[in-house]
C-alpha cells in the first residue's frame, strides 16, 4: 500500500496567516500541472449525512420517544435510553440519538455517552458501517475525539467492514478538533494500516479544516497533492479555497482560482457565485454584486440559479448602502422569478425600513411576515411599534396594536419580559 504522503503537514509549520507569495507560487505550479479531469460530484457533509441516516425507521414508537424527549434529568435520560438499547425504533432514529447525546454532553456526562455508545457497538447494528459512522459522528458532537478515532480503528472487532466513508467520518471529527498532530498521524499512518484509498471527499475535508484554521498555504498544498492520487479538485475544493481567500482579503488569489477552475472545465455552482457576491457586498460593491446577480439570471444554469441566498445578499447590500429603492427593485425581481419571501429577506427589509423611518413600508412587510408565521427579531418589532406610536395618528396607533396582537400569536411565544415591553410601547 502506498503511503499518502501528507508529511508536509508538520505541526511546526502551521501558523495563522499565510504568505501570499507562497500561495501564488503554488497556484502557478498547479496551473502547469496536468491534473486528472474527473471531478467528484458531492460535498463532504452529503456523504456523512447519507451514511449516517441509513436504516431510518418508517414508524415511531410514540411512548418511548416522547419520554426521551421530555426527560430532563441526565441520569434518568441515560437509564431510559439504555432500557431501549435494543428498540430499533429508538436506536435507528438518528434524531433521538443526536438529541440524547447533545443533552448528556450539555450536562457534562461524557461517562454516560461513552457507556451508551460503546454498548451500541456490541449489538447487531454495530456490524453496519452506516451505524458505526453515526457513532463516530456522535462522539464528535460530544467532542470526544479520541473515542471517535478509536471507534474507526476498532471496527474489525465488531465484525464491521470499514471503507473510506467511515475513514472520512473520523477524519471530519479530527479536523473539527483542530489537533494538527493527530490529523497528520491519521492521514499518514491509518490509510496504509487499513487499506483505505482516499477519495475527493477526504481531500475536501482536510482542505476545509485547514481553511477554517487560517492555514491557507497548507490547504493549497493539499490541493496540489490531489493529482498524485488520480484526483482533480472539484467545485467544492475550489469554492472552499475561493471563500477562504476572500475572507483573508486576497481577492487576486480568489479570482485567479475562479479563472483556473473554469479553464479546467470545472464550472462554478450556486455556492461559488454566492461566495463572490458575499465578498462584493462586504466590500460595499453592491452594484458589482447586482451585475453578477443579473448575469446569473441570464445564465439560468438551473431553476435555483440564482437562489434565495443570492437575492438576500444583494438586497441587504443595497439596504446597508441606504438605497432602499434598489433593494425593493431587487426584491420585485425576486418575486417575479417565482420565489416567495423568506424570513431573512423580511427581517432585512423591515429592519432597514425602520432605520430609514419608512414606517408604512416596514409595517406592511412586518404584517405579511408575521401572518406567514415568520417573525422578525424582537428588537425590530419594538422599533416598528415605537415608530408607529410616535407618529401620533390614531391610524398608526391601531397598526401598532395590530403588530402587538400578531406578536402574541408567535409559537414558541416571546418571553414574558419581551411581551411586557412591547405592551408598554403600545
Key words describing this protein structure:
single chain, 426 residues, mainly alpha, 24 helices, 67% helix, flat
Question: How would you characterize the overall build of this protein?
Answer:
By secondary structure, the protein is mainly alpha-helical. The protein has a domain at 43-198. The chain is built from 24 helices and no strands. PPR repeats lie at residues 199-233, 234-268, 307-341. Belongs to the PPR family. P subfamily. This is Pentatricopeptide repeat protein. Keywords: Repeat.
Write the SSE topology.
Layout: H1 20-31, H2 44-52, H3 62-70, H4 74-83, H5 88-91, H6 94-106, H7 110-121, H8 129-141, H9 145-153, H10 164-177, H11 180-194, H12 200-212, H13 216-224, H14 235-247, H15 251-263, H16 270-282, H17 286-299, H18 308-321, H19 324-336, H20 343-355, H21 359-371, H22 378-391, H23 394-407, H24 416-425
Strands, total number:
0
The span between the termini is: 73 Å
Strand content: under 5%
Question: In one word, what is the shape?
Answer: flat
The helix content is 55-70%
Compute the number of helices: 24
Structural class: mainly alpha
Q: Could you report the average pLDDT, rounded to the nearest whole number?
A: 86
Residue runs with pLDDT of under 50 for 5 or more positions: 11-18, 33-61
Helices and strands, in order, run as HHHHHHHHHHHHHHHHHHHHHHHH
Indicate the radius of gyration in whole angstroms: 26 Å
Main sheet makeup: none
